[in-house]
Amino acid sequence: MTAETFTFQTEVNRLLDIVAHSLYSHKEIFLRELISNASDACDRLRYLAITEPGLIADDPEFRIRLTVDKAAGTLSVADNGIGMNHSDLIESLGTIARSGSQVFLSQLSGDARKDMTLIGQFGVGFYAAFMVADRVEVVTRRAGETDAWQWVSDGKGAFTIEPATRPGRGTTVILHLKQDEKEFLEESRLRQIVRRYSDHIGIPIVWEGGEKPATLNAASSLWTRPKKDITEEQYKEFYHHVGHTFDDPWLTLHYAAEGVLSYTALLFIPSSPPLDMFHPDRKSHVKLYVRRVFITDDCEGLIPAYLRFLRGVVDSEDLPLNISREMFQRDPRLARIRAGLVKRVLDELGKKAENEAEAYTAFWNNFGAVLKEGIYEDFENRDRLIGLSRFRTTAGDGLVSLDTYVDRMKEGQGAIYTINGEEAEALSRSPQLEGFKAKGVEVLLLTDPVDEFWIPAVGRYRDKPFKSVAAAGIDLDAIAGGETEDKGETEAADADSPELAALTKALGEALAGQVKEVRLSRRLTESAVCLVAGEGDMDIYLERLLRQHHKLEPGMATLRVLEVNPGHPLIRRLAGLAAAEADAGRGVLADAAHLLLDQARIVEGEPVSDPTGFARRLASVLENSLPEPATPATGDA
Ligand code: ADP
Ligand code: MG
Prior knowledge:
single chain; alpha+beta; Heat Shock Protein 90; Ribosomal Protein S5, domain 2; Four Helix Bundle (Hemerythrin (Met), subunit A); 9-stranded mixed sheet; 6-stranded mixed sheet; elongated; binds adenosine-5'-diphosphate; binds magnesium ion
């Protein structure tokens, strides 16, 4: 049988291109990637061998071997792990098949600089070999199978696969080093790289270049070692290994729980958000081990979805080894471990929030939106999670806790006021906030879609209900303070004013079918108009979110209430016009009604309903506001 030729998936080519051109400063990490793969391959086979011991009976000691051939200029990394068969090879070394890679691929921009940063977060894995080699061979044999295969590529678009021979199971990666990469043939250099990046690997990495084999790493899994023997650098490298990531950990949490259940946890919180944070599967990435044997990195039930930003390992002493992955998820002991992990993580977050507010802000900006999912998903920890939550408010740039907010509520303020939208800066300029600002009442600026879910679920905090400033029935009069102390009387007068009554009636008629109601506002101080939700109606922003996610019937839209500011000069003049009941004013009033509604919609971030009509009315109003030209602009006078 001759070699078959395959082409790489387009995205692999893109990756290889970037690898070849841009990653020079870190090229030694190719070895970390290959050793990491070898170690994963051993982990996977060790797990299979629990139920099928025959798979490793001929060679039970796992190890990774490094050898060089100086004459040929090759470096080999060999493992006796699970190996790959023909289809594994095509799938694994021809595509980017990792979990989360879809997100990665969708974000590749083609701009080498940007893609580099992405890769920095994501890692190049096996393809890193092409940073130092102009030809890579992989000879591999899957455990339990007899056929071996050789995969070869120069990293330029294609690879070949052909039958080969290999005495035992496992994979050997042979790098034909580029002319100026011969430093990777030297024992001292290799030893240094292994110590630096791969010391935490739990199986021996053996150098077979000298008189007798030498083990280069400590060969015990990092989390099994005493904390005092582990340097920050080692934690960091381990984090890179388990997390498939290259930033620094924002938090490192390493502890052994003893008692009814014994387990060791080594968990990290990243300092920059992983790419798949908002992927719909909301998968956790913490690896589960049982007595040092890797079980799965996808154990539902080990970590709640709202802590899916955690990376690391949990190694249990008690869970049984010989049950299926699916069975673990139903083991009540797993739920107990989870409760313990959640408690410890929230404890640590609490300490950071209290003692290192600035660092906590960085965490919150990355993961606050994820953590808040727990407020409605984890009833048991609801209060703690609310306590850990931070908010932007109209009071300033910093982040505020709900306790701080409630502590400084105004006298007579009965509710925690909120406003929702996409972006805090724009929200803080919303007309609906004018009355609150005038009174000095603080409002939470909510910009995470998840806020639409946990707030209704919680309802109130410290006995104060949450209330949207865009909801019906806002009454600011009861609240002390502000420049509008005597507003109560003016408002009573406004309500009785026949002119204003005529105006709301005329506007209501002109906008029939487009608004639910037109009424005088008690929350506007500067703007002429704003839109608010009617009694019992869906929140305006929530409806927009649902529409964006196609969760609403097409065409379905709740009619809103148009509030007009009785103190605004424009509204006063229009009121005079409405009261005069002169027919000449009707057309102007109708145009004004539509323009006021469109203006309110624009401020709300909604499109105007009839752009052509909007343009025509605006032009006509502008035209009427300008003086007639003294001499005709055109013509032949
Ligand atoms: P990752 O390790 O993140 O999955 P890599 O690019 O490093 O991504 O490797 C791609 C895939 O190739 C691995 O997921 C694995 O299936 C396969 N692979 C790589 N090296 C080995 C090896 N030494 N033994 C078995 N499979 C391997
Ligand atoms: Mg890898």
